[in-house]
Design brief:
The complex is a heterodimer of chains A (100) and B (187). Chain A has one domain: 3-Layer(aba) Sandwich (Glutaredoxin). Chain A contains four helices and four strands, in the order βαβαββαα. By secondary structure, chain A is of the alpha+beta class. Chain A starts with 5 loop residues before the first strand and ends in a 19-residue tail after the last helix. Chain B is an alpha+beta fold. The N and C termini of chain B lie far apart (68 Å). Chain B is built from five helices and eleven strands; from the N terminus they run βββαβαβαβαβββββα. Chain B has one domain: Glutaredoxin (3-Layer(aba) Sandwich). Classes of the chains: A alpha+beta (100), B alpha+beta (187). Chains A and B meet through strand 2 of A and strand 3 and helix 3 of B.
């Protein structure tokens, strides 16, 4: 089992995460889900990788992008892997807005 | 007062023997921070693996087992040490915390359906818990080629591995792996 480039930090049950899953699947992008705890205090790994304690967070090793907030993430596949094929991202885009 | 104590005989199990290939499987592997699907073969690709099947988290055999594994510093070997039980990832995270395993690199596979025990031929049906089974206590030391180098499976219940023997087995496999790696490197 080789690991896809995209890691998705998510909860077992979270509508914001499902929104991102739908988008990634819609673009046929393979991703690897990592499940964290519902309690924000138990999400040190997210704080470390993305500077936030909210889910979802994606880490794309292919582009070096780490991104939080589903509203931003759902635009990421199109902007990065969309038909235009342009890579307009200049690195990590992290929003501190609270979600799940 | 004399207490008589009868252990339950489990009989023989048809489990992978030394020299055989360890069945591969994918299950959520839990660490102190998160869990994700991981294949056994991904772990063996990195080197030797100690695979420990135990009763559900919270039952005393699981507690005793991890006490020994922690106190004997199984994390000091150049091997991956992982547990398997039918407990959920949330329970594994609690076990990691309560057993003071944080920062030690020990991880646990979550297998509520007990399918891994089935693959390994070590299903243990539980009396009085309808629809619930768990693995027999078992310990396998598996090398980088996913070959079983040491196998111990409980013949009675409850029963624990011989930890000295297990440690010797891990040391032997880790040494052999190091020699093989050096030979590879020199080529």
């Amino acid at each position: 089992m080789s690991q896809p480039a995209i890691t998705l930090y998510r909860l077992g049950s979270c509508p914001f995460c499902e929104r991102v899953v739908e988008k990634l699947q819609g673009y046929g992008l393979e991703y690897h889900p990592r499940f964290v705890e519902p309690l924000h205090s138990e999400r040190d790994v997210l704080k470390r990788v993305a500077g936030v304690r909210t889910v979802p967070v994606i880490v794309d090793e292919h582009t070096g992008v780490t991104m939080a907030e589903s509203g931003a993430i759902v635009r990421y596949p199109e902007e990065t892997y969309g038909s235009a094929g342009t890579n307009s991202h200049d690195g990590a885009t992290v929003s501190l807005q609270e979600e799940a | 007062m004399e207490l008589s104590f009868d252990v339950v005989e489990l009989g023989d199990a048809d489990h992978p023997r030394e020299g055989e290939r360890a069945p591969d499987f994918v299950r959520p592997l839990v660490n102190e921070e998160y869990w994700e699907d991981v294949a056994l073969s991904e772990l063996t690709a990195e080197g030797p693996v100690v695979l420990l099947f135990h009763s559900m988290d919270g039952a005393f055999p699981a507690t005793y087992l991890w006490n020994e594994i922690r106190d004997r510093e199984f994390d000091s070997y150049d091997a991956t040490v992982v547990g398997v039980s039918v407990s959920t990832p949330y329970e594994h995270k609690t076990l990691i915390k309560e057993q003071a395993l944080i920062g030690r690199g020990f991880r646990l596979f979550s297998d509520p359906g007990n399918g891994v025990a089935e693959q390994y031929g070590i299903v243990n049906d539980l009396d009085g818990m309808h629809g619930v089974s768990e693995p027999r206590p078992a310990a396998f030391v598996i090398d980088g080629d996913r070959t079983v180098q040491y196998a111990w499976v409980a013949q009675e219940w409850p029963e624990f591995p011989d930890y000295d023997e297990l440690q010797t087995a891990v040391e032997t496999v880790v040494d052999a792996d190091r020699v093989a790696e050096r030979a590879e490197h020199d080529r």
